[in-house]
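Colleagues,

For the teaching module next term, I've prepared a clean inverse folding example: a structure given as C-alpha cells, and then the sequence designed for it. I'd like students to try predicting residues themselves before seeing the answer, so please don't circulate the second half yet.
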C-alpha cells in the first residue's frame, strides 16, 4: 500500500481537465459531502474516492478496505457516456441506459452519470400517461436526494425538481382518487402536503434565489 499523500478524485479530475487545484469545501472532502458523486464503488461497498501516486502510476484507493486499483480507463470512458447522455432525446433509451449503469457494480445511485441521465430524462420527457408520471416522480426524487447532498440549501435548481416531483405527485393523487384507490380523507391530507410543498418550490424558483 502506498504511503504517498492522497487527494480527492474530484480535485484530481479538475486539475487534469481544467488545470487548477480547487480548494473549495466540496473538493477538499473526498466523500463530496457523503454523496461520493464522482466516485466508483468497490466490491466491499466502499468508494474509490481518493487518488494516490507512487513511483509508477496513479491509483484509486477504497475508502473502506483501502484497496488500491487502477480504474482510470473506466473513468475516461465516463466522458463518452456523459456525452451520449447529453445528446440522447429518446426517453426509452435513457431508461435503458439507466438500467445498464445500475447493473454495473462500480456505479451507485448518487453517481454523477446517473444524476446527469435522470436530469436529461426530466428535461425531455413528454408526459402522456400515469406510468410517465410515476417515472417523473421517481427520477425527480433521485435528483432531489443528490442535490440535498452536493448543494444543500435553497437553490433554484432544487426548486425546479421539487416542483416537477410535486406536480407529478399531485396528478398521481388525482388519478388514485378517481380510481378509488384512496379515500377522500387520505386524498385531502396528501394533497394539502403536496400544495404546501409546491408553494415552497415556487419561492425557490423566484429571482431572489440563486
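(Answer key — instructors only)
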Amino acid at each position: 500500500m502506498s504511503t504517498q499523500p492522497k487527494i480527492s478524485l474530484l480535485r484530481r479530475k479538475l486539475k487534469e481537465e481544467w488545470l487548477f487545484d480547487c480548494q473549495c469545501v466540496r473538493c477538499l472532502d473526498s466523500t463530496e459531502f457523503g454523496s461520493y458523486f464522482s466516485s466508483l464503488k468497490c466490491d466491499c461497498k466502499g468508494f474509490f474516492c481518493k487518488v494516490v501516486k507512487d513511483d509508477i502510476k496513479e491509483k484509486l484507493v477504497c475508502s473502506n478496505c483501502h484497496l488500491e486499483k487502477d480504474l482510470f480507463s473506466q473513468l475516461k470512458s465516463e466522458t463518452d457516456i456523459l456525452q451520449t447522455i447529453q445528446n440522447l432525446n429518446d426517453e426509452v433509451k435513457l431508461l435503458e441506459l439507466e438500467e445498464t449503469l445500475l447493473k454495473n457494480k462500480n456505479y451507485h445511485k448518487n453517481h454523477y452519470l446517473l444524476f446527469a441521465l435522470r436530469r436529461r430524462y426530466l428535461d425531455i420527457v413528454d408526459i402522456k400517461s400515469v406510468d410517465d408520471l410515476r417515472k417523473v416522480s421517481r427520477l425527480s426524487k433521485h435528483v432531489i436526494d443528490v442535490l440535498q447532498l452536493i448543494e444543500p440549501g435553497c437553490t433554484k435548481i432544487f426548486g425546479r425538481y421539487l416542483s416537477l416531483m410535486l406536480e407529478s405527485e399531485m396528478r398521481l393523487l388525482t388519478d388514485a382518487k378517481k380510481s378509488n384507490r384512496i379515500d377522500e380523507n387520505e386524498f385531502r391530507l396528501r394533497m394539502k402536503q403536496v400544495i404546501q410543498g409546491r408553494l415552497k418550490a415556487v419561492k425557490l424558483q423566484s429571482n431572489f434565489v440563486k
